[in-house]
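Allow me, if you will, to draw on your knowledge of protein folds for a short while. I have a record of one protein: its chain in single-letter code and its fold written as discrete structure tokens. I should value your view on which stretches of the chain appear to form regular backbone elements. Thank you for your consideration; the sequence and its tokens are set out here:
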Amino acid sequence: MADHSAQHHSSRDDAHSTGEAPAPVVSVILAGGRAERLGGIDKTRLHVGADTVLQRVLDAAPAGERIVVGPDAENDPTPTHGGVRFVREDPPGGGPLAAVERAVQDLPAHPPTTTVLLLGGDMPFLDAATLRTLQERSAEDGCIHALRDEGGRTQYLAAAWPLSLLRDGLDAVRDSHGGVAGVGLYRLYSCAPEPVLHDAGPGESLDIDTPADLAAARARTTLRVALAQIIVPEDTAAARAEVEHAAQQAAAAGARLLVLPEATLTPFGTTLRAVARDHSSPFITLLEELAERHDLTIVAGSFTPAVDGRVHNTVHVRGKATADYRKIHLFDAFGSRESDTVAPGDQLVHVDVDSVRLGIATCYDVRFPDQIIRLAQRGADVIVLPLAWGDGPGKEEQLRLLLRARALDATVFVLAADQAPPPDHAGNGPRGVGRSAVIAPDGRVLAELGRAPGLLIHDLDLDLVRTVRRALPVLEHQRAL
């Protein structure tokens, strides 16, 4: 279906001007049904990660009334029932459109301005922020808003409808076909105005129909990461060799993400401008080649030329995503003056890798909680933090404390990859303290290295982010002061 531009004159704006309450929202989740290609199992009751598929959809649905429609609704085993109403599909097994009609029949008292989110109970990676966008846009312009999958097709069960349009569409189907039992959702959409389409994020349009779908969904709930704690040599050829070796090791261990330290191209205390001019482009090419060769996403710190004669302290992401983050907070502390040679960046950066949103920061940024919180508010579940932490009295303890605090501030995983300190280093440039670590969203240290070089491999249980945020919703409670 074609895209249509929404007009933002908005019922929301009208409500603000008249003092009226915003239009209500109802989430209708179609559950149940036996999947033949899954051996007749009810796919919405299957577990993906820690929860059933249906529970994951309920968690993503916005606050407001939630109705689950299915053939076995009265015996639903979903563990969390708060604010959820279960109604039986009529007739049982009548198909998705019959389930939608049953839900609409259960909404007699709702005003026509109500927004109805039609959601598939077998879509485990629907994103709460995306659903809020669909809901809000539909309330603003009175149009249908739906997701468009990666193939460009409308995702019928990830859509926001004005209740009046939904009722009109059901009436039109009945008029032309005499009933809705056994009729597909495509018929409803063919009788309604074309929706405004929004591109689905990674994994959002996945539904569970086959064993391959289920395997793909379960693979998305874990991410194997590798943190390479290396001594960065001053010779750039030797530094490239360290990166190649780390990529080989990470791939051999089955990692999908490799994180290298800040300043992997060349350590602080060298001629940064000359190295950036002569070696930054070949370094990026190396990362791209290694990422493709080993099927990895690689994150590594480097330096790139800045227009004012200084350099940017840049973190490159190459592989399944491409991005460049310029360090925002410069280390003018503990006697160091990073800003003498480094120009600051001013843009937050996040990327999506295998359906996981990674926020990118580096080293001194960890002392600024607002940056990490804002990345989490933009959907990051993991913060990737290359480091070249300056050594000194108490600095290791400070690093560990800050990593745990930032994880708790934003309820995110923190992946901190530091340089291993050279045993004979006597210069002023920070060369790391080691202590690379994986920190959980609840602040626990899940894995940690000492000061010596090493490769830290860890499997992230991505459902832990959902679990912690459900218990500790600090991002929702955040208020501007």
